[in-house]
Amino acid sequence: MNTPNTHEPTDSAPAAAPGPASAAPAAPSRLRPRRTWFTVLLCLVIFFAGGVVGVGGTLLRIGHQTREALRNPARIPHRIALNLQSRLDLSEDQTARVETIVKRRQARLLAAREQLMDDVDPVMDDLEADIAQVLRPEQARQFRERFRQLREEWLPRTFQLSVQEQELEQQQAQETPPAASEAPPER
């Protein structure tokens, strides 16, 4: 039984003549491996380019969030509470209590950071001076300018809470006794 889908020659179909016509089907098979490798290579390039863009975007976002937190420390307690809420499936009450605890401790944390910065600043000053000595005057000027920008951006010294935030912290600390606000919820 002859079906149109078989590759066997049928009586009604003329047989292929030997010669140049039979060489034509062989040409695509020689080009096919090159196309396959090109396609695979192109897919790999696109895949790795996507990875680079993804990593770069992630790093930019993390950097932006870090700088935002450094510039606006009053927002940190709320962000910490929301982060813990999503990761630990906290209730609304637990989230509010965590935020209150972080707010109450924030002034001490910022004071500890200031003490740390008192130790870090002289080391950074020495680093800046040592590197500047190796550079030509114009390079040293550019380096010092960039170094100061980086220090202002990543190691800011102005971590003072606003007067309203400090008053709110003091009021919350007086309203809530430490043992009650830090006690784990009963289950």
Give the CA-based shape: flat
What Rg do the Cα atoms give?
34 Å
Output the number of helix runs.
7
Low-confidence stretches: 178-183
Which sheet architecture does the biggest sheet show? none
Order of helices and strands: HHHHHHH
Q: What structural class do you assign from the helix and strand content?
A: mainly alpha
Keywords:
187 residues, mainly alpha, flat
In short:
76% of the residues lie in helices and 0% in strands. With 187 residues, the protein is mostly helical.
Helix and strand topology:
Layout: H1 20-23, H2 26-71, H3 76-88, H4 92-134, H5 137-154, H6 163-175, H7 178-182
Characterization of the model:
There is one protein chain. The chain has 187 residues and is an all-alpha fold. The protein is built from seven helices and no strands. It has a domain at 52-175.
